[in-house]
């Protein structure tokens, strides 16, 4: 029979408020790496340094690789390493009191490596290598620490407190990551420069470690009965294999893990590829993307707390009182929301271009031939008197024959009569580059060859290191780089060529006034995809009548993502924590992490394949089906049965007889 509950450690202990706050502050700290470093700053900084050092490709193991390929391989390697080791390390942590110890060690690796990312200048000439190495180590630290951090959740309170603790931790993470991200954006946009970027990257490591100290101070190592003296890695893997054979013993938990695999696959794919979808498909600008990332953080923070109330009941933001619907139903609500959000994303579309200044490449008339477009020229007619002075004197600033000067200007007027021409410059709000590669397949439009053909009339430049063309914007919106166009027939040919590209161009003034062209692959050009009738229809009846630009549409998408992230992530972890035996929490959360990492691979692969075959919106639509499958499988999850199985396993491992 063993000892009874009254003679032993309780199976379900109430939470300690100070320990819970300490636990949540770890999410506050590590989110700096996940938002500022991984999403906002490091990718662009790495791409810039890689291009500066190597051009488009570098050779590794006799294979030519682009910068993004090297990046992807490094992240995949770190993820795979942790995914394979996590379940076995979890077994060891369940048999020895080392959860907090390993959390500390892996935080030192993760936060320390994040801090060192900001010191890439120490490896001058190959800074990208420094970034890659320490980003790899930081990812190992982050993902490894996540296993032990999540494994602490079942020990933080009772099953009924799991929703609150898990969602509160996520809320802390969204708020903490959002605050630092806002500071970083202000620094980068307000001050700028290489030093500021490196400072932001290093500060993310300091932020992570600094708040982790609160976790180390207030969260104790969970109590353990029957500690084993020595556990090696091989015996740990044997236990992992044995656990996989115990499907019938933890039937509900394994069904939930399978459901989790599907819905978290879809959710992670949406969050991971949302930025790419926004820029490549919808055409949102970098600024709009940054604003949306910030919005997600600050919307997700209160939303995570709201889903706790939706699950357990209580006052919603101190306004109204509602009855709780339970963790499973609350999670199902958030999953239904994700499906709706994916469907909505298929309907988003940029508004049709209806004015000159909305196009990408702008050609404008230069009346006096001085290389400055009339819209920027303070002396449009070129008669040596600026526009303001002519208006003051009562003469026409647009007519070179009407001058304030009493002196004859016959020779000047004869020159100005034939001096008009076009100039070209880039729309400052457009920030997409010409394809930065030299090799194009037969099916691809060769943007580099196209740019070279029309380089005489386009605002382009050749990179010193890369040797390839890209747009040249100028120093600011008020001082764009302008190129004089001397051959109007060449300009007409260019407008025709635009039709085969993903860009747009417009002409204002002069003989070709109001001419324009929009490329077949431009974000506003719908109708090629199997389901493009959806965004076309919604644009006509919703977006255009309301005047909602694609930037605002994407912001709405981001706010929707933020609202649902708090509920889906926090509640998913909470349900798992409720059904996991405390005595084997690290082992099972190792599986939890493994499923999440494998899912992070499958979803993007599915999206990429369907996008290549049928278009990006079909890819998004099919990702919603993954979430639907997971949501449907949640109907088979009996949380109470899972809780009972966990309590029985804990009692068996602790030698406790549960009184019937």
CATH class of the largest domain: Mainly Alpha
Biggest sheet, strands in spatial order? 12-7-6-13-14
Radius of gyration: 30 Å
Main sheet makeup: 5 strands, mixed
Q: Write down the overall geometry.
A: elongated
Number of domains: 2
Nearest-integer average pLDDT: 83
> In CATH terms, what is the fold-level topology of the largest domain?
Growth Hormone, Chain: A
Annotated CATH homologous superfamily of the largest domain: MFS general substrate transporter like domains
The CATH architecture of the largest domain can be given as Up-down Bundle
Terminal CA distance: 12 Å
Question: What report would you give on this structure?
Answer:
This protein has helices at 17-54, 67-95, 99-117, 127-151, 162-190, 194-218, 233-244, 251-282, 286-312, 327-347, 387-393, 410-416, 447-453, 488-497, 533-546, 550-579, 585-614, 616-633, 639-654, and strands spanning 3-4, 57-60, 63-66, 313-316, 320-323, 361-366, 421-426, 460-462, 469-471, 474-476, 479-480, 483-485, 504-508, 516-518, 656-657. It has 660 residues and is an alpha+beta fold. The strands form six sheets. A five-stranded mixed beta sheet has the order 12-7-6-13-14, with helices on one face. Strand 4 (313-316) and strand 5 form a beta hairpin. Helix 1 (17-54) runs antiparallel to helix 6 and helix 2 (67-95) runs antiparallel to helix 17. The longest helix has 38 residues, at 17-54. The protein starts with a strand and ends with a strand. Mean pLDDT is 83; it is low at 1-10.
């Amino acid at each position: 029979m063993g000892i009874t509950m009254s003679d032993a450690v309780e199976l379900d202990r109430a939470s300690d408020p100070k320990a819970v706050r300490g636990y949540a502050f770890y999410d506050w700290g590590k989110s700096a790496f996940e938002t500022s470093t991984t999403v906002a700053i490091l990718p662009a900084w790495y791409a810039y340094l890689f291009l500066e050092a190597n051009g488009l490709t570098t050779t590794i193991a006799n294979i030519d690789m682009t910068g993004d390929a090297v990046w992807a391989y490094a992240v995949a390697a770190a993820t795979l390493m942790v995914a394979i080791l996590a379940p076995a390390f979890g077994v060891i942590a369940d048999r020895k009191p080392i959860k907090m110890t390993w959390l500390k060690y892996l935080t030192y690796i993760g936060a320390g490596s994040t801090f060192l990312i900001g010191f890439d200048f120490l490896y001058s000439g190959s800074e990208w290598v420094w970034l890659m190495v320490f980003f790899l180590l930081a990812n190992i630290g982050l993902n490894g620490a996540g296993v032990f951090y999540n494994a602490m959740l079942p020990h933080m309170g009772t099953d009924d407190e799991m929703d609150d603790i898990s969602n509160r931790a996520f809320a802390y993470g969204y708020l903490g990551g959002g605050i630092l991200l806002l500071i970083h954006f202000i620094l980068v946009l307000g001050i700028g420069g290489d030093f500021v970027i490196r400072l932001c990257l290093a500060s993310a490591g300091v932020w992570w470690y600094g708040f982790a100290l609160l976790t180390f101070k207030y969260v104790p190592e969970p109590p353990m009965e029957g500690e084993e003296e020595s556990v090696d890695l091989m015996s740990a893997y044997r236990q992992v294999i044995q656990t996989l054979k115990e499907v019938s013993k933890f039937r509900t938990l394994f069904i939930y893990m399978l459901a989790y695999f599907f819905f978290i696959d879809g959710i992670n794919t949406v969050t991971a590829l949302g930025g790419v979808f926004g820029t490549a498909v919808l055409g949102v600008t970098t600024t709009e993307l940054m604003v949306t990332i910030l919005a997600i953080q600050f919307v997700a923070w209160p939303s995570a707390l709201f889903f706790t109330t939706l699950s357990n009941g209580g006052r919603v933001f101190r306004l109204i009182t509602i009855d709780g619907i339970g963790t499973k139903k609350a999670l199902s609500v958030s999953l239904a929301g994700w499906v709706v959000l994916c469907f909505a994303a298929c309907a988003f579309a940029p508004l049709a271009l209806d004015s000159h200044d909305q196009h990408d490449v702008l050609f404008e008339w230069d009346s006096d031939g001085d290389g400055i477009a009339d819209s920027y020229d303070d002396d449009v007619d070129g008669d040596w008197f600026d526009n303001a002075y002519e208006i003051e004197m009562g003469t026409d600033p647009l007519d070179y024959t009407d001058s304030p000067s009493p002196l004859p200007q016959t020779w000047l007027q004869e020159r100005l009569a034939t001096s008009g021409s076009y100039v070209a410059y880039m729309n400052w709000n457009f920030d997409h580059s010409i394809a930065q590669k030299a090799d194009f397949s037969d099916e691809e439009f060769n943007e580099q060859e196209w740019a070279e053909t029309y380089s005489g009339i386009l605002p382009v430049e050749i990179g010193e290191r890369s040797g390839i063309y890209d747009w040249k914007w100028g120093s600011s919106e008020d001082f764009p780089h302008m190129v004089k166009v001397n051959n109007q027939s060449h300009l007409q040919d260019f407008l025709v060529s635009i039709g085969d590209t993903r860009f747009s161009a417009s002409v204002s003034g002069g003989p070709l006034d109001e001419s324009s062209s929009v490329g077949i692959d431009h974000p506003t050009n719908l109708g090629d995809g199997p389901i493009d009738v959806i965004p076309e229809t919604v644009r006509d009846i919703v977006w255009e009548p309301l005047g909602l630009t694609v930037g605002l549409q994407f912001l709405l998408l981001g706010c929707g993502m933020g609202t649902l992230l708090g509920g889906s992530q926090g509640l998913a972890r909470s349900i798992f924590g409720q059904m996991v035996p405390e005595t084997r929490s690290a082992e099972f959360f190792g599986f939890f992490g493994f499923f999440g990492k494998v899912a992070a691979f499958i979803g993007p692969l599915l999206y990429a394949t369907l996008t290549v075959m049928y278009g990006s919106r079909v890819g998004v639509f099919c990702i919603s089906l993954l979430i639907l499958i997971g949501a449907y499988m949640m109907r088979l999850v009996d949380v109470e049965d899972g809780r009972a199985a966990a309590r029985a396993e804990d009692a068996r491992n602790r030698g406790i007889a549960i009184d019937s």
